[in-house]
Recover the amino acids of this structure.
């Protein structure tokens, strides 16, 4: 259940950013979360409700951009979408692939006031 | 948190100016403002991990993060390694568990410098815990530091501790599809140790299948098979370990 640590990190970053901008509340937070980021969305939802209580994010709207994972085959250079780490290259069938995107776990933006 | 402005005053009330006698001097703008943060959620952990990594490099310490599910034999492998290589390498160990100092006591019995971190309710070690453990234990220069993570194949995968290599351990009493079920850990590791191979005749575990599954997740993963009980394969692990220790050339 590392999602709670993740929520606490998000709260800390948001708090610091709001403080730097002389703002007192966060109205909206936008997150980029890749499908291979290791985040379970249901667990994040659960941890979110608990983790933001009495914090600057308590009343913030949360927007999540799910980023589809994409990989490149190191054998034949084909680029393709993947659902799992163990997916093979659809062109040559090899597993020698490198992940191009889908591991994102970042705060994209905040709207503060 | 201060209820007036939302700033993080903590308990340091003396630094806070919300009393009646003078002007509230915070300069708040009450308009909505967009901040492009573009920051990794784990950047604080990653930052401290880099700091740990710098410390290890400066002191020529080989730091290894040992991860596995509970009961795969991490501590037994450490005990064996620490005793067998005692005369060749200098070791230090950081033990991570939710509760007890049982593992640290076992390591201590081998005569190795050891620190126990109890994470309480936490399911993983993070770089901040390692930073403080290092401040307390001060591992010697030119040594090998084993960090035995909390037994958990999920959460520790996300937290860089500043290690040089991540070693995932799996035992043959677990399923050979484990790499597919817990891919993050196998993806982020550089070495996979398959432990308890002396039990292979008694369990429906295929070495070929587990290796195939692990390589599907991470084609460059190195694999060592061994048994702490029979001693089979230990030499391969010791050779791997010694090959990673940087020995300064004497001119």
């Amino acid at each position: 259940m590392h999602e709670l640590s993740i929520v606490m990190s998000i709260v800390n970053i948001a708090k610091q950013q709001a403080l730097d901008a002389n703002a007192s509340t966060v109205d909206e937070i936008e997150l980029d979360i890749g499908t291979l980021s290791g985040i379970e969305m249901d667990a994040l939802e659960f941890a979110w409700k608990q983790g933001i209580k009495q914090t600057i994010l308590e009343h913030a709207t949360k927007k999540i951009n799910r980023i589809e994972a994409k990989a490149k085959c190191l054998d034949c250079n084909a680029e393709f979408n993947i659902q799992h780490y163990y997916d093979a290259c659809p062109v040559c069938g090899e597993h020698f692939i490198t992940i191009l995107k889908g591991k994102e776990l970042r705060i994209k933006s905040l709207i503060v006031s | 948190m201060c209820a007036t402005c939302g700033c993080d005053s903590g308990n340091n009330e003396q630094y806070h100016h919300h009393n009646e006698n003078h002007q509230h001097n915070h300069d708040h703008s009450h308009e909505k403002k967009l901040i492009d943060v573009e920051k990794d959620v784990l950047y604080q952990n990653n930052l401290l991990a880099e700091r740990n990594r710098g410390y290890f490099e400066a002191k020529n310490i080989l730091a290894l993060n040992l991860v596995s599910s509970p009961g795969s034999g991490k501590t037994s492998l450490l005990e064996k390694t620490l005793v067998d290589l005692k005369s060749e390498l200098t070791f230090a160990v950081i033990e991570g568990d939710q509760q007890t100092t049982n593992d640290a006591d076992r390591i201590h019995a081998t005569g190795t410098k050891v620190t126990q971190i109890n994470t309480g309710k936490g399911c993983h070690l993070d770089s901040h815990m390692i930073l403080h453990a290092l401040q307390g234990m001060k591992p010697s220069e030119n040594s090998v530091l084993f960090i035995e993570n909390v037994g958990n194949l999920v959460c520790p995968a996300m937290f860089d501790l500043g290690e040089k290599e991540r070693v995932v351990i799996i035992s043959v009493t677990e399923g050979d599809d484990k790499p597919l079920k817990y891919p993050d850990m196998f993806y982020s590791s550089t070495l996979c140790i398959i432990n308890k191979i002396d039990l292979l005749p008694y369990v429906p575990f295929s070495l070929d299948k587990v290796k195939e599954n692990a390589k599907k997740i991470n084609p460059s993963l190195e694999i060592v098979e061994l048994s702490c009980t029979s001693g089979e394969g230990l030499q391969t692990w010791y050779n791997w370990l010694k090959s990673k220790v940087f020995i300064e050339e004497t001119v």
